[in-house]
Amino acid sequence: MKKNNLSSKQPIGIFDSGVGGLTVLRAIEKIMPNEDIVYFGDTARVPYGNKTASTIKKFSIENVLFLLEQNVKMVVVACNTSSALVLNHLKGIFNIPILGVVEAGAREALKVTAGKIGVIGTESTIRSKSYQKAISLENKKIKVIAKSCPLFVPLVEEGFLDGEITRLIVRMYLQNLKKNRIDTIILGCTHYPLLKKVIADFLSGVKLIDSAEAAAKESKNALKRSGLENKARRAGNKKFFVSDEAKKFLKLAKLFLKRPISKPRMIDV
Fold first, then answer.
1. Domains identified in the chain, total number
2. Which residue from 89, 172, 182, 225 could staple onto 118, CB 3.0 to 4.6 Å apart?
3. Is there a catalytic annotation at residue 149?
4. Which one from 174, 182, 189, 206 is the annotated catalytic residue?
C-alpha cells in the first residue's frame, strides 16, 4: 500500500554522515538504473560514530526532514551508526518507507551462513551490537563474532585499497575471525566494500556480505510491494547535497562510484 499518496516518479532519498553511503547509491543504481536518487552526505558533522545516541537521533531526524523537502518516496539510512541506533525511531515518526543497512545485511548473511558469522564495522557500530541483535532475533543458534576495524575508513579515504600496508592491516584485524573459522562475514560499514578484494583474499572461501548491496535489494523489494517502482525507460537523475565544502566529497565520490559526479550543493541542516 502506498503511503501519503506517494508516486513512483518521486526519487529515492539516501543519507549518510559522509561519503560511505555512496556504495549504497552505487548498489541501488545498479539494480534500479531508472530510479532518481537524492543523496545527502552530512559532511559538516561526520563522523557520527563518536557522537551520543541523542545527538545521532537529532542529526538523523534533520536529515530525513531535508530529504522529505526533496519530495522523496523512500529513505535509505546508509549510515551504519544511524541505522543501528535510531532506525526504529525514524520509522515510528515518519509516514514513509525507511530502510537501513544493518537489518538488510543481517538478513542476507542468515540466508547463506552455515552457522558462524563474523561482523566488522566501526567501533560505534560494533559497540552497539546491532548486527548481533538483528541476527539473534532471527536465529539464536547462530554464533556471531564481531570486530571493530577503525583503520579501514581512513585507508579507503586515502585511496589505499590494496598493497602491502592494507594487507597487513586487514590481517591484523581479521586474523582472529579466520582462526575462529567463520563461514560468512558482514561488511558492516559502507566504506568496507572498497576493500572487498583484500578481505576476500585473506578470508579465502568465506562468503562476503555487502550491507550496501543487501540494502539495495531490500529497497527494490519494498518499492515493488508498495507499487512505487519507477518504470520510466531512462537513466535516473542523481542529485547530491553536502553540509560542508564539497571539494573532498567530489574527490572521494569519484573513488566510490568510479566516475565523476556533478558538483553537490552545500546546504545547512
1. 2
2. 182
3. no
4. 189
Instruction: Answer yes or no: 79 catalytic.
Output: yes
- Domain identity same for 228 and 194: no
Whether 29 is covered by a domain: the verdict is yes
Segment 34-62, tens digit of pLDDT: 999 999 999 999 888 778 889 999 999 99
Amino acid at 144: V
Here the CATH number for the domain that contains residue 60 is 3.40.50.1860
Pair (152, 220) in one structural domain: no
Does residue 7 belong to any structural domain of this protein?
Answer: no
Among residues 12, 19, 79, 209, the one annotated as catalytic is 79
Tell me whether residue 170 is in a domain: yes
Residue 191 inside a domain? The answer is yes
Provide the residue range defining the domain that includes 57.
12-101+213-266
pTM above 0.90, yes or no: yes
